Amino acid sequence: MVNQYPIESGIKANSMICTVRAVLTKGNRVQVVVGAGAVGSVVARLLVEQGERVRVITRSGSGPDGVERIAADASTELTKYVDGATAIYSCAGPAYDKWTSQWPPLGAALIGAAEASGAVLVTTGNLYGYGAVDRPMTEDLPLLPNTVKGRVRTKLWTDALEAHHAGRIRTAEVRGSDYLGAGAVSPFSVTVLPKVIAGKRGMMPGDLDAPHSWTYVGDVARTLIAVAGDESAWGRAWHAPTPGPVSVRHLADRAALMAGAPKAKVAAMPGWILKLAGLVDPSAREMVEMQYQWQRPFVLDSTAATVAFGLQPTATDDALREMIGKGK
């Protein structure tokens, strides 16, 4: 697929400088993963399996086995830990209700660390920037966010992309829809799945029968690694391989069947209940502006990444089976 962000001569020169720097530090090279959540942990494990030296940076110092763990605030200390890095994987994020205050400094720190080290910065993104659309989402859609959080994510990406075009850094972004898989957090995993497995009624705001795309966390991780290792993939966004959309109701039915639970019971949550919950629960309060994603078809087209990297999406049943503890 043709890169939609042409690389100018100055950027090519910067890329050559970064390549030389990487060669000079090859003996000490490291892959830096910021965050050890559902995606970051898989990225780290896959890199270790490939024989890479991996450094994971989190506030708590957590991370999977086989990696170097650093306890640090990436918003203020990241540059200290990226010497010799060939890639920086941004897989962290503030709490949902802290986005406007904590994402800007973290985004600036990631750009600064990439510039200081010469490492390619590959960011885990999402679909908020597209806003409400009436067609399957592809990477060439304009970013027209209709929410506060969408504007935050758009600013993070445009800042990084401007630094890329200026030759200061090299970067790319990998976007996915709502996550499935071990450790995945989404409205479905919080308000529906535990209830269904327990034989109780789950509730979610929106149209329970609308087609909705679900992305497996492992496929996001594989795409991040593929993009980081392919210079022709830099300077643009990619959608992680994602299977065909299924409704919340269908997903709940499949989960109940796999878990050996009674037939799934799900109901549409009235908007006023979510707003009421938001009075005491910051996460629920932040979900109110995102309801548009659940009130109509929300479909991700990941053809570009599938063609470019030869990555096929993990089957939705396999991702769901992993979530309910039945293996994958």
From TrEMBL:
It comes from the Bacteria. Coiled coil: none annotated. Residues 33-229 form the NAD-dependent epimerase/dehydratase domain. SUPFAM superfamilies: NAD(P)-binding Rossmann-fold domains. Pfam families: Epimerase. Gene3D superfamilies: NAD(P)-binding Rossmann-like Domain. This is Nucleoside-diphosphate-sugar epimerase.
